[in-house]
Amino acid sequence: MEHTNQINISEQSTIRREKLAELKAAGKDPFRITKFDVTHHAKDIKDGFDEWEGKDVSLAGRLLSKRVMGKASFCHIQDLSGSIQAYVARDDLGVDEYAAFKKFDIGDIVGICGTVFRTKTGEISVHAKQMSLLSKSLQPLPEKFHGLTDTDRRYRQRYVDLIMNDESRDTFLKRSKILSAIRRFLDEKGFIEVETPILVANAGGAAARPFLTHHNALDEDFKLRISLELYLKRLIVGGLEKVFEIGRVFRNEGVDTRHNPEFTLMELYQAYTDYHGMMDLTEEMYRYVAKAVLGTTTITYNGVEMDLGKPFARITMVDAVKQYAGVDWSQVKTLEDARRFADEKGVHYEERHRKGEILNLFFEEFAEEHLVQPTFVMDHPIEISPLTKKKPDDPEFVERFEFFMNGWEMANAYSELNDPIDQRARFAAQEEQFAKGDDEAEHTDEDFLNALEIGMPPTGGIGYGIDRMCMLLTDSPAIRDVLLFPTMKSLD
């Protein structure tokens, strides 16, 4: 094993560049190689050893270790599927090729042609007949024994993290499987996958501060979308009935273990159903994805077991506040009552906050952290739900739910407001809040209102935080661990 920490890194880089110069001078520039025929991956050979023993294979990957013992050597090659040992002997390669192999550096990309066998110690290996240098690594990798433990470097140089840390590579392979399973599930349900604009004139559909940009050719300001909602609803108006989109959205907010300024959101809308239909769909989808990716509906996150196999709990926001804060909101008749309860319980509110918004502050302060097992929190106050249908029997509340696991909001769903007159009034109320200092308030979208006036059927809709779903299903402690390239502050 080569120990890269024994020599100064800049010194090693210089030596590697000198080796490259020698190769080029000898007409063996590895960067001129355009292809290498790969027949197998490491895992194929290991899993199918009985089939491939004694047969010739061709594989390529990164040289992770090298142990030279005179006329014979052992090395390990890593590809997408994992690593495998190779036995390299001078008598098989020839004197010149073996001497060239001995100059390979850890991190080089190599190709091997050889025969599958098992060593005396029982390790499945490839007996190399030919070794090719396919690409030269000019910078040393971190020492393999320690892996890449510098968290900041792991996020900034994900390419190194993926090489050095098997668990990181496994996380992102699993993320891909999660997205594939979601798409299969929705395809089987008859949903149509669509794409909607990222650059928008009016960033609506969520309470968030957008990023601003400018289109030079049109000489117009645009925003990066904060949600997918208003365009997807236009498609429901257009008669597509079941639509979904998985895409990046952008919110100009802080960064922490659960928030990144750009993240992956999935929203879906289904005509002729309501928020109860969205609850049923969510239960079914989470079970389907967990089973497809993990093989079980019981998941463990940070040592806590969560059971997706049982019916998900359902509780109203008012009942959650009563249970966890000890406040009976049915006794709150006025804004003054709400403020008095908040003062008694030490809940901070602003002058612009209305009664329903203070209820939500109570919920966030006292209830959220307790919602560890899958739970639907239903029936939010109208003040925080400008795109949602009112409850017919209680117009202060709406047909909305948020889905919680591990104390986190995982999804947000509505019986969608399809009354254009009511929607215009809700937008007007949001504009008032914006004028009072709420820079996350919605703005009036005239084209969306026009679409509603054309006519939108009763519709259920939901938005899922895909990154948080991936965190739970991969037991990852931070959102940056499931984003290949998270947003990082510049080092300059």
Concise structural overview:
The chain is built from 16 helices and 20 strands. The protein has two domains: 4-146, Nucleic acid-binding proteins (OB fold (Dihydrolipoamide Acetyltransferase, E2P)), CATH 2.40.50; 164-312 and 373-481, Bira Bifunctional Protein, Domain 2 (BirA Bifunctional Protein, domain 2, 2-Layer Sandwich). The radius of gyration is 29 Å and the shape is elongated.
Total helical segments: 16
Strand arrangement in the largest pleated sheet: 6-10-11-20-19-18-15-14
Number of domains: 2
Integer-rounded radius of gyration: 29 Å
Number of strands: 20
Uncertain segments are 1-6
**What's the CATH topology name of the largest domain?**
BirA Bifunctional Protein, domain 2
Q: What share of the residues lie within helices?
A: 25-40%
Average of per-residue pLDDT values: 94
Assembly level: single chain
What characterizes the major β-sheet?
Answer: 8 strands, mixed
Q: What's the shape?
A: elongated
What structural class results from the helix and strand content?
A: alpha+beta
